[in-house]
Amino acid sequence: MRTQVGIIGAGPAGLLLSHLLHLRGIESVVLEARSRGEIESTIRAGVLEQGTMDLLNEAGLGARMQAEGAVHHGFELAFEGQRRRIALTELTGHSITVYAQHEVIKDLVAARVAAYGALKFGVTDVSLHNFDDAPGSTRPSVRYRHEGFEHELECDFIIGCDGSQGVARGSMPQAVRHDYQRIYPFGWFGILVEAPPSAHELIYARHDRGFALISTRSPNVQRMYFQCDPKDSVDAWSDDRIWSELHARVDTLDGWQITEGRIFQKNIVGMRSFVSTPMQAGKLFLAGDAAHIVPPTGAKGMNLAVSDVRVLTAALQAFYEEGASDKLDRYTETALKRVWRAEHFSWWMTRMLHKLDDTSPFEQRLQVAELEHVTTSRAAATALAENYVGSVAV
Ligand code: FAD
Ligand code: DHB
After folding, report:
1. DSSP state of 290
2. Which positions, given as ranges, span the membrane (predicted)?
3. The CATH number fitting domain 185-271+355-389, selected from 3.30.450.30, 3.30.9.10, 3.40.630.10, 3.40.50.300
4. 204 C-alpha to center of ligand 2: Å?
5. Cβ(46) – ligand 2 distance below 6 Å
6. For ligand 1, what atom is nearest to the CA of residue 168?
7. Tens of pLDDT along 275-329?
8. CATH class of the structural domain 5-72+96-180+272-348
9. pTM for this prediction
10. What is the residue extent of each domain of the chain?
11. Does the CA dihedral 225-229-235-241 come out positive or negative?
12. Which position among 102, 110, 162, 323 has the lowest Cβ density within 10 Å, counted as fewest Cβ atoms?
């Protein structure tokens, strides 16, 4: 089997890339390890930057997001028993939309299926071949198993969109690869709750007991997170224990409280910052979590995956329409600018809001001083807001 672009992974990066290439008349095949049901139900991100929304709208994928997503013009920082607002739209002219990642995935899969796009679920034993640019080398190919048979997909380019645990990054030549990493000694305990929203906007809370985040999914379903030990077990947390921890961290001195409800999903995720460079070797390119991870505090991961795809689509379009490869050659350099900006922002938000094991009471007071600063200085609030909505210059 032959195609122009072979894509590994049907996350936001792989599916969106395939769809944007299709709109430009470029053929691709997407190979996904999991089933359609699994990718459409895995609970992950929730916050879309305006640039991400604009791209989804331009690609004709925005109808359900516009109907069911919630546009937010600000969020709140809670600390020292009070809540202070960061007025995103007033400070930057941009907003964010809360719309779950698995809903984006459903919209993307539906668009690929409607366009008769080649999308194979449940593939195993994926391996990458001949992607180095050596003169005289044969075309790149991806070998895989599907429905009991071995297959080989020949293509012009292979794009690794297979997330942090995929095979593509490990196929990059070790001699050129350099990884940067910071693992945090804490994780996030996430819950889905059947309840009305506790507040109009998202709340990021710093407390001596640890971080908490109050987000939303719909008028009836809320998403909440709190900092925990990454090795902790979900079973160690009864509903009562979860509510008392969240109340302790988020409720404010004026008597306002989060709204409880029936908890119907619990999970724990670890947190790390990670960048793998370069993002290209010959005809192999990496996009999204395959190349970089951010801690979720800045809500950047999915948005960064989308931003890689935007850069890569323009580069592939220039190659197929004009025979120009300069944008492809500059892919790592172009994509990494936004990646490192987001890495810094996510690390900074994480350090400002979490209980850190390596700090003294002095540094804990510095966290509060910084929160005071970003909620009172318009310049500091604007810098935070520009990073959060993704309008910051890179
Ligand atoms: P993935 O979504 O990981 O997709 C990769 C796909 O490749 C998967 O479907 C996988 O099954 C498949 N795959 C893996 N290996 C193989 C293989 N060998 N062969 C074939 N297929 C393979 N980001 C935000 O922007 N905003 C947020 O608010 C936000 N909140 C988050 C909250 C949490 C709790 C978590 C965990 C993450 C959050 N993120 C957020 C991050 C976001 O979910 C990821 O950055 C995003 O999913 C990256 O997309 P991707 O397409 O690069 O990778
Ligand atoms: C959500 C996740 C985040 O990481 C974040 O910063 C804000 C919201 C969410 O899942 O709703």
Report:
1. G
2. none
3. 3.30.9.10
4. 10
5. yes
6. 18
7. 999 999 999 999 999 999 999 999 999 999 999 999 999 999 999 999 999 999 9
8. alpha beta
9. 0.96
10. 5-72+96-180+272-348, 185-271+355-389
11. negative
12. 323
